[in-house]
Amino acid sequence: MLFRFFIGMFFFLMTLSIGAQEETIPWSADRKLQWSDFKGDYLKTEWAAATTASSISYKFSTFERGGQLYVDFEIGCEFYPQKSWYRPDLVDSVILSHEQLHFDIAELHARKMKKRLAETQFTTDIKEEVKKIYKEVLKELYIFQNKYDRETNFSRDRQKQLFWNKMIAEALFETKEPSP
């Protein structure tokens, strides 16, 4: 009887762990980040005031119609609350705005990926071709995020921060999808 209980608990826990997904917040023009979204723990030795963990995700499926191969893509940009953190003693609204822009930059690169995928003529090796584009976009995102931090001096250079705010807002506006 005890053995059955443990086997039952094992399958129950496996089901929970398989079904459990990390909490994410999808990017939205209508929802800005709040400090309450940053739920990760920070190290007291950490020099930064805050860290935004975000990423680009993708899914795709293929189907054939009339002898033609079609690809359907789903591209997303998510914020990871449990991996994002801040030091309450070091932050203010300017730093929150700086962190929001990191998330906006990730969304901008998600849109770049979507555009590249839409423009690509895929072969039968579609899985590898998509993965290659994804890796290229992630590399560009990493370089762009570092450039942003370097040029704004992590939000300390207010003039550069305002310049980047405007530049990214314009880029997001130019790449937004038309309303139906």
Question: Explain this structure to me?
Answer:
With 180 residues, this protein is an alpha+beta fold. Helices cover 50% and strands 17% of the residues. It has a 3-stranded antiparallel sheet. Strands 2-5 form a two-stranded antiparallel sheet. It has one domain. The longest helix has 27 residues. A hairpin with a 2-residue loop joins strand 3 and strand 4. It starts with a helix and ends in a 5-residue tail after the last helix. It has 4 helices and 5 strands.
Question: Could you give a short description of this structure?
Answer:
By secondary structure, this protein is an alpha+beta fold.
C-alpha termini separation: 59 Å
SSE string: HEEEEEHHH
State which percent range the strand residues make up.
Answer: 15-25%
Question: Would you count the extended β strands for me?
Answer: 5
| Helix content class | 40-55%
Largest sheet: 3 strands, antiparallel
Number of domains: 1
| Molecular shape | elongated
Q: How does the helix and strand content classify structurally?
A: alpha+beta
Count of individual helical segments? 4
Gyration radius over CA: 21 Å
> Uncertain regions: pLDDT < 50 for 5+ in a row?
1-19
What average pLDDT do the residues reach? 88
- Widest beta sheet: strand line-up: 1-4-3
Give the topology.
Layout: H1 2-19, E1 25-26, E2 50-51, E3 54-65, E4 68-79, E5 85-86, H2 93-119, H3 126-152, H4 158-175
Antiparallel strand pairs: 1-4, 2-5, 3-4
Helix pairs in contact: 2-3, 2-4
